[in-house]
Specification:
single chain, 277 residues, alpha/beta, Metallo-beta-lactamase, Chain A, seven-stranded mixed sheet, six-stranded mixed sheet, globular
Length: 277
């Protein structure tokens, strides 16, 4: 599997791309071309063009969860596809895979922080598979579906509200999911924001992949000024896992990275990073 970072909060030195507080990764695995999240704007498209990645030939679009920094790039992607239609050029109609609640309206203090495009409009450009269960993208790459919340310190508080069919509820981000990739050495986990809890995600991936060995975790860990109990128990968890390395980024603050780096090898992430597993 090859992974290229199209969007992250940071860019790598001497790699002149656009950064923004969001996530987007381009993945190639078993001949499949996969886009994981789309960031906040059209920046991922500009970066992909500079990397000579053709986004009109995708086989899959995976959305980790419904927040704006992972879905608002859908509108510029629509523009790109519509341009191809007007220019009488073909493009693949990728399969969009996400949790069933991903495209509900989400608000924080009354402001919309969820996807601006609903499921009905998405069907104009994608075939859609919304699932709470795992979805195997290739023989070794799986969308994890709804993450089991099994510990007592992660995902304890809602972030705003979600709205569906006239019903409003506290949003515990049940739609937050991730990818897991099986290798001979163990599992690689690819996250968006890890609202479900990075430790919960790792445990869920182990269960789905039937493997306790983790060789890398790349993505946001949802550790932004975490409470002391959360960061302490998270660090203790990582210390117990014998993980080869991690690429913590996006919604992971410096203090949390420093604490994690004391128990696991932490690698730098930025737009332009390329990793092959």
């Amino acid at each position: 599997m090859k992974l290229k970072v199209l969007i992250d909060n940071n860019t790598l030195i001497d790699r002149y791309f656009i950064g923004e507080p969001g996530v987007s990764y381009y993945i190639e695995e078993e001949g499949k071309k996969i886009l994981f999240d789309v960031g906040y704007s059209d920046a991922f498209i500009k970066n992909a063009n500079k990397m000579e990645i053709e986004l009109t030939n995708l086989d899959y679009l995976i959305i980790s969860h419904g927040h704006l920094d992972h879905t608002w790039g859908l509108m510029p992607l629509f523009y790109l596809y519509t341009e191809r239609v007007f220019e009488n050029q073909n493009y693949n109609k990728p399969k969009l895979v996400a949790h069933t609640e991903t495209f509900y309206s989400k608000t924080f203090d009354g402001d919309e922080i969820g996807s601006l495009i609903d499921e009905k409009k998405l069907k104009n450009h994608f075939s859609i598979e919304l699932s709470n269960k795992p979805v195997w993208i290739t023989e070794n790459l799986v969308f994890l579906g709804e993450i089991e919340r099994t510990n007592d310190f992660e995902n304890q508080f809602p972030i705003g509200k979600f709205h569906n069919n006239g019903i409003t509820k506290d949003d515990y981000l049940l739609d937050d999911s991730a990818l897991a990739y099986k290798t001979e050495e163990g599992i690689v986990i690819i996250t968006g924001c890890s609202h479900a809890g990075i430790c919960n995600i790792i445990e869920h991936a182990k269960k789905i992949c039937n493997d306790d060995r983790i060789i890398d975790v790349i993505g946001g860990f949802h550790l932004l000024e975490p409470e002391e109990e959360v960061i302490t128990k998270t660090v203790n968890y990582f210390d117990s896992q014998n993980i080869k390395e991690i690429h913590a980024c996006h919604c992971t603050d410096l203090d949390s990275k420093i604490k994690l780096s004391k128990v696991v090898k932490l690698k730098e992430v930025g737009v332009g990073l390329e990793i092959e597993y």
